[in-house]
Design goal:
Layout: H1 4-42, E1 47-50, H2 54-67, E2 79-81, H3 86-95, H4 103-109, E3 115-119, H5 126-138, E4 141-146, H6 151-156, E5 162-165, H7 171-193
Parallel strand pairs: 1-2, 1-3, 3-4, 4-5
Helix pairs in contact: 1-7, 2-7, 4-5
Amino acid sequence: MMEPLTRIEQHFAASIAAKQRTLESMGPRIARAAELLAGRLRQGNKILSCGNGGSAADAQHFAAELVNRFEIERPGLAAIALTTDSSALTSIANDHAFEQVFARQVQALGRDGDVLLAISTSGNSPNVVAAMDAARQLGMSTIALTGRDGGRVAAQLGGEDIEIRVEATATARIQETHILVIHCLCDVVDWLLFGKEQA
């Protein structure tokens, strides 16, 4: 029978391996995504973020790091998590469909030049795909955090959109790597916008 410590060691090893593989394949895309975010924020645009379950928590985490702070003191940055307004979410799901809970908010809040951070571990979340479609129609760019084979989200990308796909199949490993990617994005955005001497 496997000991608890052995199981824990296996989780750590798998997480480290997923992060290393993702760095090797996606490092330049993460840098390009951070540059896109910083450039749009510099121009006065905002970032909308969405996802389901653990990815909803990641969307909120990302928005909070921008609106408040990451690791340096600086002015707040314009970001909104589309996962937090229970009245909007439930009314849209009730009156239309759960698939539209993010798309309707993108249509109401998004503007040409804004960026959507779309998070889906499977790449197949219908409401995330619908949000991407709404964003494209408004002239927004999408940064998609995915896993596995990228799914429908990867197929939906175009133009200046960027997919950052975690090199893993287990949901836990994908989520763990997504939060590392999010921290990298926050750090590089701060570095680009608020003076490299502070880093």
